[in-house]
Protein 1
Amino acid sequence: MKTLTTLIITLILSQTLWAKSKETIFVEAESFSNTGGWVIDQQFINEMGSPYLMAHGMGIPVKDAETIVKFPKTGKYYLFVRTKDWAAQWSDAEAPGRFQVLINGKPVNKTFGTEKNDWDWIKGGEVEITQKETSIALHDLSGFNGRCDALIFSADPEFNPVNELNALTAYRHKMLGIPDKPKNAGTYDFVVVGGGMGGVCAAISAARLGVKVALIQNRPVLGGNNSSEVRVHLGARIKQDPWPNLGNLVNEIGPERGGNAQPKDYYEDDKKLKAVLAEKNITLFLNCNADGVEMEGNKIAAVTAQSIITGERFIFKAPLFADCTGDGTIGVLAGADFMQGRESRDVFGEPTAPEVSDNLTMGASVQWFSNKKEKPAPFPDIKWGIEMNEEKSHALTRGDWDWETGMGVDQTKDFERVRDYGMLVVFSNWSYIKNHSSVKDKFANEQLQWVAFIAGKRETRRLVGDYVLNENDLRNHTVYPDGTAPTTWTMDLHYPHPENAELFPDAPFRSIAKHIEIYPYPIPFRCLYSKNVDNLLMAGRHISVSHVALGTTRLMRTIGMMGEVIGMAASVCKKENTTPRGIYNNYFAQMEKLMDKGVGDTSLPNKQTYNLGGTLKK
Amino acid sequence: MNKNKLTSSMIITLIAVIILLSSSFDIRFINKSEPAFHFLTEDSINIEVIALFEQDSVLSGYKAYVFSPVCEDTTCYPVELEFYWDVLGRFQRYEIFPGRELTKLDHKPFTDADYKTLSKLLLNNEPAFLEMKREDLVVKVKKDTVDGYTGATIAAIKNEVIAGAVYSCYTLWHIAHGIVADSIKNHTQKHFNQELLKKLFDSGEIEVAYYLTSRLNEDQCFTFLPEIQKLLSESGGFLAQHILDQLPQKVISSESFQNSMVSIMPNLDYYAQKSLLQRLDGTLTSDKLGKVLAESIEPRGSLHNELIIEIFCDNKSQLDPELYQTFLQQLLTKQVMLNKIQSENIKELVKNDKQLKVYLKNLKQKGLVQ
């Protein structure tokens, strides 16, 4: 199986995908054989239809992305590039994400990324193809997040590409020769979707208990918000009452150093990957975005997924699934009941809930930091940002969790705008500090070293389980017999920073946190499986909790422990041929024994001692 | 000192006095002190800790004269003050000696704000540098940079420490919160007496309750059984579970304790109940408590049920025979599915008892026994 995995991953990574239909050729940008300094961004597939390449250079143009395209014949073609001017919704100034298309090293007579504020095909005009095997490259002009989904070369002067999402997807599949029937990626005991702390721990936990697992992750690295792509450190406490051996696995795979927005090696991506690869019962699918389900009654029969590099489709079959996506993606696809926004006070009788329900959620963070260089490090005086001045700007060298945007925006449907605004404010602020601020001399040698392009989400949807944990349970410490992973962080809810909201009333980008301390509280098992999808477990910020209770359960060590628990549940489901609800009703004693023992290495010293958070128990 | 400074100093002094008077175990009416123990700091400085008493025999806290060299960058100088802890080894406050005020880098004296920062830091159990090594506290920066620092305090701890005295802060915090805390806890245990224990129980502090219930001997537990029962009934979090895990077996096995649990047990949370059940296995002697256990069997499969079944199967000779009928009737009524081991144990339990065999037959008829 390991060989098969390696083969699939190798195929995914090595195959440059381009396709021709008669005299029209479709080239996926993310399939370029050499992506150069461009990054693959898959976060918004459901919004705009595809992963894309992005020139995330933080103001310094990135290296060209390049591939060889085979043309059926030489001659004249009409070029179309699917792209957008990402900052157009906030500014009329010259677009930030400008780039060129190079054909055999020569730019076509058009600069892309300069028009349309939503994804569309931009005409590149006539191009002359003189060789059947021609080098096509994307040449970044700004370092400010130019982006390209795909290119079309058509010899047909009447050709007009489709842009409506469903039609475009069908067209992509046709042009790339992707069959309607996805490739069989295997049959497993347990399919875990999402490779953050919850998913990784779920997969390892289940695998160690003899369960055959497929782990599907839509990024090239594991760790989710704790990966080097997002750089949020782990938080909350492990090894707590009533299950002091939960968290041993989190301790095994968790980074030893704390800190948000720190250098890449703080997040120890390799440690998580090695831990997964060490399990013979896990087949790992990186760069694979799960986006469909096949149902049999109230049960998921299979999950389908797409390679974010080649577009190839796969199907994963199992009797049991885990949604560890954070967004509840699999649950929602399967028709699971879910909650979103803030519940009103009368729903659960929570003192902290608003009187009237609303759509406010916590936001997503785009963190960043700069480094001091030997020489002055200029930064462009950008015109396309939001307006800054002494009062509005922040003379900082690091943006932590509180650079948070998107509260109140549906981050499952409009997240590209949220992420882009997060980057826009970082660049706007930095441009002001570097070029206009009264302290600009002090910042002369500072250079933006890292700005997240994968934004760290806190809250989107919450799937409804057989129980919905709420503030009163936590405040009153009303514990239930099916308690599992102890949540220890405060009920920590984020709101727009009042001063920032006054200065930026349309879209504040700084936040504050309000805390309510709790005793360590074991999250009921009934919060970890769907109420109406019978074979769906979950671990992550999207478990069955109220908005207020989410304030404590969303911490990543807690989520990792949820993963440990649902991995154990998968082993009991397999052994007893039952469902998660069946475990609760009939086999919970087995879960208690497993939680008592734990699945992690008990001999390791506890390295998870940073960012513990306050708790009522010492 | 200007008028504003004078006023603020007076306010600080007043607040300090109020805190001092309102603290449960602070050092009031001290009329005896004696050397308690010595400990070595991370810099191998030997420090003697003095135990403080009120009313001659009641331990009230500890103090120590702290003298340690500290090097900030390339300059080293002595730090000299007095630390005070409560009887659980929790840092309370420090005092400086007249004429020997603390200094920062380049021998600049501490300001009022610096003393306040130090106080706040020393009272913080989890400062940002908790897991850091001394060498990680500053980043080395070249002299020609804008800040002109040779060593700049890292951003993560900047708000909690005193600029120019970061190593002093680090050193003093580790003296205040290091090995001394556990040593004090151990030393206090040697001075347990009625008055001190009463005072500690009366404090109502959860941390004190955890401490006490881990360290009381059997006799002390029996003496303070009402207080322990009160904690079991009223405590939050997992204290009840902790107490039931920690109590000496002789206490758990006593009929007086078990009878007292008749009214307390139904109100304990699931995890505390489970701890009690684990401790009762093989030691249940109270028929009253046995009845409570039998009636708390639930239809849902859980470890709680398994433990109750184990207790009844292990305790046959010690309990009222009628209780076993109640127990088996509960299994029938709640339709508890028995696994193979439980089934065997139940068969063993009833094998010499005609009346109980009827229950087994009924359990078999319902398909509950394997």
Protein 2
Amino acid sequence: MVTLDTKQFDNWMERFSEDKNIQQIKRLTEVISSDAEPEVGQTPKEVIWTKNKAKLYRYQPAIKKTNKVPILMIYALINKPYILDLYPGNSLIEHLTDKGHDVYLLDWGTAGYEDRNMKLEDYIVDYIPRAVNKVMKTSKAKDISLLGYCMGGTMTAVFTALYPQLPIRNLILMTSPIDFKDAGHYSNWLDKRYFQLDKLVDTLGNIPFELIDFGNKLLNPISNVVGPYVSLADRVENEDFVLNWKLMQKWLNDGVPFPGESYRQWIRDFYQENKLINDQLVVRGRKVELANIKANLLNISATRDNIVLPQQIAPLNDKVSSKNKTLHIVETGHVSVVTGRKAVNEIHPYIEKWLTDNSK
Amino acid sequence: MTQTTSYDAFTMWKNVYEKTESTWRDAIQDTLGKESFAESLGQIQSQYLQYQGLVNKLTESYLKQLNLPSREETSNIASLVINVESKVDDLEDQMDVHKSDTSREIEQLKKGINNLDKKMDKVIELISKSIEVQNIPKVTATPTAPTAPTIQPAINAKK
């Protein structure tokens, strides 16, 4: 019988598994492949109205509302709105409801192939006014505050300009493009001479999320594709960082298709022809004039935003008739304006205070 | 004295990434901003859409041969459901308008009845006052005093 002395091998194995690099690789593999996805959108809510795929939520209905003006959040047709309620302690909605605000969110849902003919104006004219009506009825308020993020903010601005008779007290726009004269690389890539918009919409119906995501990642390919994994490997032992990384990756890869006709209108009327800022946009036969906006305006722009450039945001303040208007510039990126440490510590409290001050 | 430094693959990877990113960033951004890049992107897009269009047509004809509904036909059913839902929405809106009109009318009716009630109360009050006024002479003319003596003797008589 041959007896092997495995002590040396065991020692080596023990040292191997205790090696910092090996521990990091092990954890990195777990995070990427087998860790459970974090639960998002945890603030309690109830659905108070639905239409087609859209849902109107009211948040924390059980909490006493000390602020008399309800807030309706209007999200973009790209990605999912839970970025506004990402995780407990990292949620704009949670922050506002905890401070006694009555918060509602209009979630457009996931468009199906049958929604490919939905135009932007259908959402603006058929959905938003009804949602506003439902909010007013539920809250029994006399005024309303509207908050739009990204493209949702552009839609909110168009809506506010179209319905000056509605009691819209406050308008908050977060990184919402209004002037498309210089949209960075997008202006080049979406050039009418090369970008085949009609062929794209006619062939695909709805525009897949992957195509939109490809465009966004192409803005800064190395840091958008490799960067997140380098950061994760570097800080994989920091559980808070890993949680935030997983939350962001979940949201970034959890997109929705863009309804085809809305995409056609969004690219043509906004990116290619820049109609909104020039008062040339026509919605259901009605001209959209930004000067009709009289509500108090808080326009938030992020300096490191490469999806919506600061110069696309600021010109709105010169167009509106609002007496109370603020352009708030923050040192963040497009997404970190709503989520992350800076958003939680600075931007959420700023928005809450502005709303409280303008809701008396 | 020798100093031992452990090999850290992650730090090396991070350094390589940072150096590569900073070296290539400007060149990549320059390329992305060129008109020729947009043109190439357009060409790739055109080829992809041509391929996708062909796949769509082939799939549709294949499904037709198998007697199966296409994506278009299935989505048409969904559209019908959405249209019905829109009509229900319109009805709900109209009902809301009617409801508010009806409640406004009921409110006005309530006010009208209240006013009428108050007026009726006044009328009744005035009528009872006028009856009282009409009855005063009768009351004063009631010959209570003369009847007393007639009763009195009767009592006395009993005694």
